[in-house]
């Protein structure tokens, strides 16, 4: 039967990767570093969750052939590879790369995916899901990768979090009374693609010598949110600068040289004094960056 051949292929594939995979996972479990090539191998060739899910899907189908025809290009490539292995054909080199290329055609990779650190609440959410749905690290990583693309969740990362689970849960218990503050930190990760666009824009603006104020940042965040297709009702509440403090620190304060500020203050005070300006004629001007924002 075709399904038996695929299962045999999966068994052969599992045996092929077992020794190296066990060795690398043991190193990670003992806090030993592994090379970037080994990390990539664990995340790709050694990650057979896709193969397992394809077989499970075909096994639960009422009819093998029609169901196999419904698979996308990536799924069909997996079936071909397992069929070659199970049928005794050894020439399957490069199939993993081909599968990655096919998947690229059917599932576009997010454009803005610079890596961010996971918030405590996110780690707890991921750990809870892991224990609830089978305790499979690769499956957990695969589930949350599209949900939190900027975290770059892979199986080794899930393994590291599980090793430190007691520490994370202890911190969660201690900070549970600070739910509001933690919630604000987590909300900044709700729209990571917007955050990254804003980060890139801020870097460029500071390089051009622009003064970035809170209102400029708020307007830019909204503009990028619209560009990313985020509905207005899902926009973060930035009225009080919530979520923009980091940008403001590198914007208003970070873009002004302290010596320049000191000398300008003295110069303006001298102008006011020598020109005889009354206090009622002195205005505080702010948010001028809006003219070129």
Number of strands: 0
Q: What is the average of the pLDDT values?
A: 72
Q: Helicity level, as a percent range?
A: 55-70%
Give the termini distance in whole angstroms. 65 Å
Ranges with pLDDT <50 over ≥5 residues? 90-115, 178-189, 248-255
Summary tags:
293 residues; mainly alpha
Task: Walk me through the structure.
64% of the residues lie in helices and 0% in strands. It is built from 15 helices and no strands. It has helices at residues 2-29, 36-43, 49-60, 64-69, 73-86, 95-106, 120-132, 137-144, 155-163, 165-175, 179-187, 192-207, 214-227, 245-253, 258-275. The radius of gyration is 27 Å and the shape is elongated. The model is unreliable at 90-115, 178-189 and 248-255 (pLDDT under 50).
């Amino acid at each position: 039967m075709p399904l038996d051949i695929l299962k045999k292929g999966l068994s052969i594939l599992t045996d092929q990767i077992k020794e190296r995979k066990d060795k690398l996972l043991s190193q990670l479990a003992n806090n030993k570093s592994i090379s970037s090539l080994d990390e990539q191998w664990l995340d790709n060739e050694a990650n057979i969750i896709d193969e397992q899910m394809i077989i499970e899907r075909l096994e639960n189908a009422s009819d093998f052939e029609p169901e196999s025809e419904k698979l996308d290009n990536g799924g069909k490539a997996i079936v071909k590879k397992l069929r070659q292995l199970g049928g005794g054909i050894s020439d399957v080199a490069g199939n993993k790369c081909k599968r990655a290329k096919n998947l690229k055609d059917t599932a576009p990779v997010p454009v803005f995916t610079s890596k961010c650190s996971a918030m405590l609440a996110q780690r707890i959410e991921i750990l809870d899901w892991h224990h609830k749905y089978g305790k499979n690290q690769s499956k957990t990583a695969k589930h949350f990768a599209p949900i939190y693309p900027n975290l770059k969740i892979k199986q080794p990362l899930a393994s590291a979090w599980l090793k430190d689970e007691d520490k994370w849960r202890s911190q969660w218990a201690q900070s549970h009374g600070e739910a509001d503050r933690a919630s604000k930190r987590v909300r900044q990760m709700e729209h990571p693609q917007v955050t990254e666009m804003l980060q890139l824009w801020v870097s460029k603006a500071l390089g051009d010598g622009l003064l970035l104020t809170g209102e400029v940042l708020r307007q830019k965040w909204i503009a990028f949110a619209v560009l990313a297709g985020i509905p207005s009702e899902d926009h973060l509440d930035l009225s009080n600068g919530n979520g923009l403090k980091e940008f403001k620190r590198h914007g208003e304060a970070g873009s002004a040289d302290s010596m320049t500020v000191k000398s300008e203050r003295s110069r303006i005070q001298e102008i006011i004094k020598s020109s005889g300006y009354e206090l009622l004629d002195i205005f505080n001007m702010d948010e001028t960056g809006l003219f070129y924002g």
